[in-house]
């Protein structure tokens, strides 16, 4: 995207963008409430099978937003002006319910974040999650829905000696290979 890049700069390589998608610990998820107002929240993700995956409680605002409008944006990067790479991934969130896929994803959460989920009934279960109304110190199992966001568009914005803006489009559900 030369209109938004320093003159003569090179596009960000997909490999550099993929490293950030795989390694970033925090992403910001943007969804739309049923009344059209935006909702943005930080969360953790794992990259698998050419898509970002995240989990959330089934009654949380983001899960309720996605039930009516699966379109969303996930962003990550840095807050520095003079260096870094920001990535914006657009797509539709699809709930994952197959236990075999969820087990694979739970393994990735464990490896990346040391966060261990049980898998049952098409969801993650966190036996250490506090539940509203519990007595102080009590722990109860928390159900979390898992979503997959296959990118339709990815933007990478590099800063440093040169400013770069690079865009990739993935049409017809084309897979983004890791």
TrEMBL record:
Pfam families: PNPOx_N. InterPro entries: F420H2_bilvrd_red/Heme_oxyg, Pyridox_Oxase_N, Split_barrel_FMN-bd. One of its GO terms (cellular component) is cytosol. Residues 20-153 form the Pyridoxamine 5'-phosphate oxidase N-terminal domain. Signal peptide: none annotated. This is Pyridoxamine 5'-phosphate oxidase family protein. Keywords: Oxidoreductase. GO terms for molecular function: coenzyme F420 binding; oxidoreductase activity, acting on the CH-CH group of donors.
